[in-house]
Amino acid sequence: MAAGEPRLTLDVEVSGDRYVVSVAGVLDLATADTLEARVMAQLRPDVSVIIDLSGVRLCDSTGLGVLVRLYRRAVAAGASLALRGARRQVADVLAMTGIGTIVPILPPDES
pLDDT tens digit string along 11-34? Predict the structure, then answer.
């Protein structure tokens, strides 16, 4: 990562009640709160949130924890939340930890 480059960037695309949150960079202890706050601001009944992880280079245990917590909060709010597009390294971590049994993981091209 170059000096001055943000550790995490988020872009939210809104289409009706569907939000795609594109995440890029590092999802870890230092950045997980940023993602959590941005997604929590979108949660309400009947909203669909997709977290696009295609730009995430690294996701540590804090990042994994926030993804599960966001899914549970979405369900509690009457919304839906899914992940998509994880790079191989992040996808392997999601698979090894079993997060895909909790949080729906969409194919990269599905929205």
Answer: 999 999 999 999 999 999 999 999
Take residue 8 and report the two structure tokens written for it.
């995490």
d(CA 81, CA 87): 19
Q: Read off the amino acid at residue 52.
A: D
Determine if the pTM surpasses 0.90. yes
Q: What are phi and psi of 52, to 5 degrees?
A: -90, 110
Let me know if residue 27 belongs to a domain: yes
Q: Is residue 1 part of a domain?
A: no
Q: The dihedral of CA 38, 97, 86, 55: what is its sign?
A: positive
**Number of domain units in the chain:** 1
107 and 76 in contact (C-beta within 8 Å)? Answer: no
Per the domain annotation, does 3 fall within a domain?
no
Reading the block at residue 23, the tokens are 């995440």
